Amino acid sequence: MKLSHSEEQICPWCQTEIVWDPEIGPEPECPHCFNELGGYRSIQLTVKQTGQPIEFDDTDDEDEDYESYDEFDENELQAMDEYEEGAQRVLDHQETAPECSSCQSFMLLAGTQTAGSAFIPVVQKTAGAPILSEGYSTEVFVCPSCLRVEHILAEKDRLKLAQLLKQVGSQ
Fold first, then answer.
1. How far apart are CA 119 and CA 91, in angstroms?
2. Is 3 exposed, middle or buried (0-12, 13-18, 19+ CB in 10 A)?
3. 32: pLDDT confidence band, cut at 50, 70 and 90?
4. Which of 141, 122, 117, 146 is nearest to 132 (CA)?
5. pTM exceeds cut of 0.85
6. Average pLDDT in the 101-127 region?
7. I need a labelling partner for 78 at 20 to 30 A (CA). Which of 3, 53, 69, 99 fits?
């Protein structure tokens, strides 16, 4: 029995030929490497015989994605570009730029914040002192992509913490 071209497929990930049963239909994933077949991760190519013209389908799914950009007017696109350029200029002048824990974009330093009297330090038995004392400071960063805000211990308090932990480690 000879299979038609629609009943055999090459996995784009491991390059293994996949032959499927016409009663069951095409495989949703490669039985060899278990990667997803079809969908947005794969492209479908049809091999033409020599001399046959190549025809492009104008109703391609990718065209629909690009058409959605047409919904934005030129001013909105320019405003987004200016926003990204402004964020990059700020980042260029920062000493440190941690990555956002949510989207991995570099974060902008927004300022510092000092813990007030609401912070009650805990005295660790092994350290004999609090890990952070009242009035510790954090640097406040904001992500320009997802607008997440994160706090990182300020350098002077990082050094105090490191010194305390070294002393505990040497006991």
1. 31
2. exposed
3. confident
4. 122
5. no
6. 92
7. 99
**Interval 47-82: pLDDT, tens:** 677 777 766 555 555 555 555 555 667 888 888 889
Residue type, 70: D
Q: Please name the amino acid found at residue 156.
A: K
One-letter amino acid of 55? E
Does pLDDT of 3 surpass 50? no
**Contact of 110 with 151, CB cutoff 8 Å:** no
Grouping H, G, I as helix, E, B as strand and the rest as coil, residue 17 is strand
Distance, in Å, from the CA atom of 27 to the CA atom of 46, rounded to the nearest integer, reads: 18
What are the backbone angles phi and psi of residue 137, rounded to the nearest 5°? -120, 150
Q: Within 10 A of 141 (CB to CB), how many other CB atoms are there? A: 22
Rounded CA-CA distance 170/52 in Å is: 79
31 is written with which tokens? 């039985």
Token reading at 167: 């002393």
Task: Identify which of 128, 130, 131 has the alpha carbon closest to the alpha carbon of residue 171.
Answer: 128
Q: What percent of the chain has pLDDT above 70? A: 78
What amino acid is encoded at 21 in this protein? D
Collapsing DSSP to helix, strand or coil, 76 comes out as helix
Output the six-digit token pair for 39.
């969908």
